[in-house]
Amino acid sequence: MKIGELARATGANIETIRYYERIGLLPEPDRTAANYRSYGAAHRARLIFIRHSRELGFTIEEIRSLLDLSDHPERDCAEADRIATGHLEQVEAKIAQLTTLRDELGRIVGRCRGGLAGDCRVIEALADHALCEGSHA
Amino acid sequence: MKIGELARATGANIETIRYYERIGLLPEPDRTAANYRSYGAAHRARLIFIRHSRELGFTIEEIRSLLDLSDHPERDCAEADRIATGHLEQVEAKIAQLTTLRDELGRIVGRCRGGLAGDCRVIEALADHALCEGSHA
DNA sequence: TCTTGACCCCGTAGTTGCTACAGGCTCCAT
DNA sequence: ATGGAGCCTGTAGCAACTACGGGGTCAAGA
Questions:
Q1: Given an 8 Å threshold on Cβ–Cβ distance, is B69 in contact with A123?
Q2: pTM for the whole thing?
Q3: In this predicted complex, what is the ipTM?
Q4: Distance between CA A107 and CA B30 in Å, rounded?
């Protein structure tokens, strides 16, 4: 299949596919006489693996390691579990951080009663460093 | 105060302070005879505003607007509220997205029982596109 | 007085993961 | 033969910094 078909088959966009090839994540495919890239089922599977991993938030380097394991089925899969677990922890940390952030934002937004910027509680809250250090009694 | 002191006073790092100046977020300070930047209380307050806003996840452009309002107390603060509310919605959307992601990751991580990569459920799950399309009965 | 080390200056390039050109080729249908 | 869709390459842009190289300045200690 040509690059456009592969893009449609996987949901990746064409520029992204070429990008993955450039950084060595997706192997260089054969070329047609007209120098068009020609992909097979293995490429499609690999790209699906990559896209799915990206959707789960794995970095390119993590995906590189995961693909490497996938290419060497005789290795120990502890590394895969370590990567996934570590990533899960990061996601959980990010959720916790965003939740705190949401609460603080909620407090700020709730304060605005309209009127002039000079009296705006939103702007005041942002200027007031104390607010982000726990003194919101 | 010199740039290093300002950095310590605000928690921003020196390169970041120069960056904010370069993009016009922080006004150019006076210079000493030796061409060192010399900051006053107004700079410190503005930088605290910026850092606090960044910690809350506002983009540079949003902060530019918020600072602009802060510089013009006679304007209507509806814009500040609009920015903050919009941002809050984005944070909530991000939390929801990450939560879904965490659940899917949790399912994947829980599957690994050690052993060879060839049998690894983590790698399998990433390769299996069906998993991310709702078929996790 | 000299030197050492901490601090400051500037400009540019690197980071992550793409995305968007510009300028040109190929292929297929009409 | 012509038009448009699709492909090619290489490079530049995005956000928000961060890091680096190569240099100037300043205060304290030997």
A1: yes
A2: 0.84
A3: 0.81
A4: 37
